[in-house]
Amino acid sequence: MDLYDVPKNRTLTKVWYNPEGHHTMPAYLNSLNNFILRSRLPADKDHQQYSISVSSHPYPGQVEEEDAMVKGLVNTLVALCVLTGFSIMTASFVVYEVQEHHSGSKRLQHISGISEPFYWTINFLYDMALYLVPVAFSVAMIAAFQLPAFTERQNLGAVTLLLVLFGFATFPWMYLLTAIFKDAEMAFISYVCINLFVSVNTIISTSILYFLGQLNESDESIQAVYHTLSHVFLIFPQFSFGNGLMELARVDLQVQILKAYGVDAYKDPYSADMLGWMFLSLVLQGLLAFTLRLLMNKWLMRKIRSFFCRGKVEPQKGTWDEDEDVVAEHRRVYSGEADTDVLQLSQLSKIYQHLSKKVQAVKRLSVGIPAGECFGLLGVNGAGKTTTFKMLTGDVSPTNGTAQIRDQEGRMVDIMDCRKEGINIGYCPQVDALDDLLTGEEHLYFYARIRGISKREMHRVVNYLLRKLELGYHRNTTSENYSCGTRRKLSTALALVGSPQILLLDEPSSGMDPRSKRHLWKIISEQVKGKCAVVLTSHSMEECEALCTRLAIMVQGQFRCLGSLQHIKNRFGSGFTVKMYLEMASCNVDTITNYMQEHFPSTYLKDHHSTMVEYHVPIAPGGIADIFDQLESNKTALQIKHFSVSQTTLDEVFINFAMGKVGVETVHSEGSDSDSLDSFDAVDI
Ligand SMILES: Nc1ncnc2c1ncn2[C@@H]1O[C@H](COP(=O)(O)OP(=O)(O)OP(=O)(O)O)[C@@H](O)[C@H]1O
What is the average pLDDT value for the chain, to the nearest integer? Predict the structure, then answer.
């Protein structure tokens, strides 16, 4: 029978073989094929010479596949390690900006002439340049270990681009958050946590979906969810970066497996179905966040605010507790009489808003400060002095009102625009805004450069200020090793760079020894004499008495009195302070109080500690001699050991305001002139 004449659907031959023997099936098949061959041979041929041989070898691809799986796992681990390392490392770059924001150094640089967009651009360029160093090291390491997933053909270039773009996209969003952190350590931990949290969660969730999709190829919904999430998560730079590395590892696994079959599954890493979208999203994220960073600056915010609240602020009606001098200054500023003053605050107010809670830190401050005046801002802790300074330096925007400066042409310009108009403001912040790594001399050179002092002049200016502030000895020491007083001196020196027209000094002498303090007072007085307008806050009444030509005392954000030192003393410091030391702590103070009030009407007890009692005597018809007489003759009966009588000092006026002892009645009824009081010297007995 001819083997080819087999009817359809009819099996000609059936071969049974044992599947446990790997070679049985090909052996049987080969026997069958030989049988067919020989049956087809012509009869004259020797059958022994015709045969088909089959040889069986183990399949080589099986071992390689396992190898490829292990390599794929290694690549995934390498990708995760790179992602973790760079998540931590990028966070460490932005810590410096947080530190500068927190220390006030950034604000000082803005006041000295560096605009916010310039500050961020320079920092970004510097961070990127520095960031390229670890990127170069990482690329060198990857290249040295020759992991095909990251080095094959164009893959090394793609990895390098991913690393660079990760920094490009990550730094700007970190810059956006610098203001919310209170310290650099917290910022670092938060940035690392955000980076790791986002990357781990997005990558693990998409990887699980990817593998589930591979296992259930028929289930298209898993694939769809995977693709959707992979696109949505592109908004996170951490995902774009991490997933880019994982994608290279995944594709390399396929390449290695299919290589055994002679298939080249390599994909161009820059193509859209590989890392193309990831590169694009990283670039867009970087550009968007950096543009936002440039736009979200105080200058622009103020411009937007002032656009919506245009027009000069109307003077609001004085409230019950506004002093007549404060109201008069309001009127002077509003009527334009203060237009020749260098610095003009008009109805300056600040309300801090925390969720539903509002804190009115500063209320309607109006004052004009002419050139050659040192204006003192006094107040207890929390009175609003620092907030006022922050508004003057542009650190916080006023909720209402304006702070303006008169330029050389006599135009009033907003204090935020003063640098553009060539007006120099010197600022000595309450907390020293120094860079711990710079020496005193380097600080001065840095700020001299920012202020635009020419190279020729710079050396002279720096040496002059080092000499003037007695910093010569510390010129080459880094500021982290400075004592508190020396730091204050350096902060003051920085405020004096470029001979500013306006000097803002926030407690400049705190922490200085008495000799340095007096030396500083001398320097400030020289500045005032040189027609500089100085605003000074201090808790030292002695300092205010020594320097201030006019001063105001702030209570709960408001000026409670304003005028020259003498004027304030005359109005609120009338009368005498009587200080007594009693025989024993158990002596009856009420008896003494009654006695004092009987002889000197309106006398009140100011203070009482152990054996010390202090009275304020507003009216003594017989003057100081009368008080002295009365107490001396009743000293034994009242059990007084010794006592002193002095004219009320600024210190006491301040304490009276701080303790709320000067109310509206006092403000309005005690306006009588008592210039003669100052002619008494303190009498100690
Ligand atoms: N960022 C802020 N958020 C909310 N409230 C604030 C903020 N800064 C200050 N305040 C509040 O504003 C008020 C004025 O504070 P400010 O620091 O201006 O006082 P100060 O007179 O400078 O005090 P000190 O003499 O202690 O420096 C205080 O009640 C304070 O709690």
Answer: 85
Helix (H, G, I), strand (E, B) or coil at 195: helix
**Residue 359 Cα: closest atom of ligand 1:** 5
First to last CA, the chain: 150
CA distance linking residue 74 with residue 482, whole number of Å: 51
- CA dist., res. 617 & res. 685, Å (int): 17
Closest by alpha carbon to 27, among 16, 40, 11?
Answer: 16
For 115-119, 233-237, 277-281, which range has the lowest pLDDT when averaged over its residues?
115-119
84: CB partners within 8 A, 6+ apart: 196
Mutate to test the pocket of ligand 1, among 101, 181, 360, 385 (most ligand atoms within 8 A of CB): 385
**Ligand 1 atom with the shortest distance to the CA of 362:** 14
**pLDDT tens for each residue of 208-237:** 998 888 888 778 888 899 999 999 999 999
Provide the whole-model pTM. 0.76
Contact 634, 642 (CB under 8 A): no
Are 175 and 90 within 8 A, CB to CB?
A: no
Count of beta carbons in the 10 Å neighbourhood of residue 17: 13
What is the distance between the alpha carbons of residues 476 and 444, in angstroms, rounded to a whole number? 11
| Ligand 1 center from residue 72 Cα (angstroms) | 58
**What SS3 state is found at 230?**
helix
Helices 455-468 and 484-496, axial angle in degrees (round to 10): 140
Q: Residues near 311 by Cβ (< 8 Å), separated by ≥ 6?
A: none
Question: According to DSSP H, which parts of 9-104 are helical?
Answer: 24-40, 61-103
Q: Let me know: does 531 contact 371? Beta carbons within 8 Å.
A: yes
Confidence of residue 679 (pLDDT cuts 50, 70, 90): very low
Going by alpha carbons, the residue nearest to atom 8 of ligand 1 is 387
What is the rounded distance in angstroms from the CA atom of residue 607 to the CA atom of residue 579? Answer: 9
CA distances from 436 to 411, 433, 487, 535, 642 (A): 39, 9, 10, 27, 52
Classify residue 566 as exposed, middle or buried by CB count within 10 Å of its CB (0-12, 13-18, 19+).
Answer: exposed
Cβ-based neighbours of 115, under 8 Å, separated by 6 or more: 297, 299, 419
ipTM score assigned to the predicted complex:
0.96
Residue 603: its pLDDT value, please?
86
Local structure of residue 273 (DSSP, 8 states): I
CA distance 674 to 652: 16
For residue 553 and ligand 1, the question of a CB distance below 6 A is answered with no
Q: Is the CB of 390 under 6 A from ligand 1?
A: no
Q: Residue 110 is which amino acid?
A: H
Q: How many A from CA of 659 to the centre of ligand 1?
A: 18
Q: In this prediction, what percent of the chain has a pLDDT beyond 90? A: 37
CA pair distance 376, 539, nearest whole angstrom:
10
Q: Is the CB of 386 under 6 A from ligand 1?
A: yes
